[in-house]
Amino acid sequence: MTSAAGVPAYRRVLLKLSGEALMGSDAYGINREVITRVAAEIKSVTAIGVQLAVVIGGGNIFRGIAPSAQGMDRASADYMGMLATVMNSLAMQDALEKQDVPVRVQSALRIDQVVEPYVRRRAMRHLEQGRVVIFAAGTGNPFFTTDTAATLRGMEIGADIVLKATKVDGVYDRDPAKHADARRFDVVTYGEVLEKRLGVMDATSIALCREQNLPVRVFSIHKPGNLLRVASGENVGTLVKGD
């Protein structure tokens, strides 16, 4: 691993983007300026030779329809959330293609007229050929979060690390938006995340990472150049690693 600028520290990474990261200052939905900037960040990483897969949450869209889902069967509501991730994935695909980045979207739910079905070997072939692969629709099952989907897909494709891009610049001992004295961790273990309920990712995904010794780096996507710095091995945000 290296920290030299512009030199890849990883061969293959899984980038987890929250849906909320695409909203910008909007109440919900996709902010075109934000998604264009994030696409440029992704392009900068692929330009140094990193194979990049992406999982995007659906909170930015599902937030707008959540009131109508109140009282709904949980499985049905979760499927609505999965479809929201497909919409985000198509938007990111468009933003990347406008910057001449080759990209494929694969969905865990079959929507063959719109995107490819998820096929692990095909996804790995796309990555080896320099295409960004966006995994949509979570795991295809209700009751599982997109954090768990990111961890699962990261393990399936043999990613070296999961990069969780968020609105905050790392993992804190408590909510920094509510507590001015909140302390940010440079490094934290899987066990500490679970024991202290630090809210990095859901417990299922952290447990999977610990089982497979798959590290996670949490960082802010809103600081320009952060994704490239992380992919180059710089100590940005918080690293979650083995006990």
List the helices and strands and how they pair.
Blueprint: E1 12-17, H1 32-46, E2 51-56, H2 59-69, H3 74-97, E3 103-107, E4 116-117, H4 120-128, E5 132-136, H5 146-156, E6 161-166, E7 171-172, E8 184-185, E9 187-189, H6 190-196, H7 203-212, E10 216-220, H8 226-231, E11 238-241
Parallel strand pairs: 1-2, 1-6, 2-5, 3-4, 3-5, 6-10, 9-11
Antiparallel strand pairs: 7-8, 10-11
Short overview:
By secondary structure, this protein is an alpha/beta fold. Helices cover 38% and strands 19% of the residues.
Note the main attributes of this structure.
243 residues; Carbamate kinase
Description:
The structure is a single chain. This protein is α/β, with parallel strands linked by helices and 243 residues long. The chain has a single domain, classed as Acetylglutamate kinase-like (Carbamate kinase). Helix content is 38%, strand content 19%. The strands form 2 sheets. A 9-stranded mixed beta sheet has the order 4-3-5-2-1-6-10-11-9, sandwiched between helices. A two-stranded antiparallel ribbon has the order 7-8. Helix 1 packs across helix 3. The radius of gyration is 17 Å and the shape is globular. The two termini are 20 Å apart. The model has no long low-confidence stretch (mean pLDDT 92).
